[in-house]
Protein 1
Amino acid sequence: MGGAAAGEIASSLAVDEMMRLLVAEEPGVPVQEHAEKAICAANQAIYSRSQRNPKLSGMGTTLVALIAGERQIAILNVGDSRAYRLRQGALVQITEDHSLVEEQVRMGRMDRAEALRSPLRNVITRALGTQSQVTADVFSMEAEPGDLFLLCSDGLTRELSDPLIESLLRLDLPLDELCTRLVGAANKAGGHDNITCLLVRAG
């Protein structure tokens, strides 16, 4: 979480713990069960570390992840990092932001233009490690050959509109070049926050 206590430690712990659990998991376990176990372990690792060290009190991180099975995939998120899917040229946001303004928009108390201007747009309502327990959103679906999945931090989506992201992802370029184009466009648009993006294409 940008500007929060020891966010880089929290994010590193989350990645390490998620990978440890997912790699060690026995085959045959449903993808969603994999995901939920890994989220709980990552959250506990961050929360326990912050409880043991007062200097790390309150540290947390957002998380978005994709776990692939044979054809079934699970996408999970906590916070305002996002996952999108580009299928046959059409971009769809899969995840929902756990942020104050997005929750206000979903309840009809704020429109999209107001949300973009709100001084509270950086306030997230759910994060990994800030509480002893957390609930992640888990989205299970079947991937189709050619599907392109984008996982990204809010540093990308705050600067680039969904139509612009879609137009960039439609370019016939290697995935690493597409990532470079996305980050470059976000930096050109202002680059006010850390920008992270990852692309995965279904075979």
Protein 2
Amino acid sequence: MTDQKQAAAALATKPHQRLRLSAMRGEHVGILSVITGLIVWQIFSDYVVANPLFLASPMQVLSALVSLASSGELWPHLGTSALEFALGYAIASILGIAIGLLIATSSFWKSWLQPWISGLYATPTIALGPLFILWLGIGIWSKVLVVVLLVIFAVIINTEAGIRSTSERYLEMMRSFGATRSQLFLKVSLPSATPFILAGLKLGIGRGLIGVVVAELFGSRLGLGRMVGASADSFNMPELFAAVTILAVSGIAMTMGFAKLEARLVPWTKD
């Protein structure tokens, strides 16, 4: 009996070991991909373009980052952009999930809100940036509004799709056991929609970062977008690429964080 229990335990742990090994291989491949890209970038900037006025090399970008950080010039820009993104992303996530759940569970609210969602989603929010600055000034709230409008629709659409994709077979099975409406939502619909909600939140990361930069380009005192604009005006490619690199690394880090969160919240979506 002891041998049988050990064999059963070994079989049970094999899927988890395979998942861990697969995740480790994926991380190694991702790191190798980044290293390869940096090497190609360095070679291209040294031997193909060979002019820092048009393209900064990774080493020049690293040098600019160190210089900006050590002088203290980087931190006010980084802090301002981070605050604008965090506020806008948090507001859009909360409102987006709430509105998505509302229109997915109520035909009245879907009919009432759908024209507004479709119309605003098709509206070029970036082009309205100057108008938001006119309304709210060049402080952080005009940028927060741009981030909210760029992020919220991805969250709404994915949340609604997730709720509506819930298997009717599972719902019927729960109803046959006498489940209430709230139990159906909490035990079946919401877990089923969670991967879709997380996908919407991940899509919102890139859209939110773009919104911050573009809104700051229209008018701001501080921020990475302001830094990009000033660097472009003075043809300072190392500092321009330094700001872009910070944004890219931030996007990668947050997306990886959501991937780990997804693995914990919805492990059944993994093979």
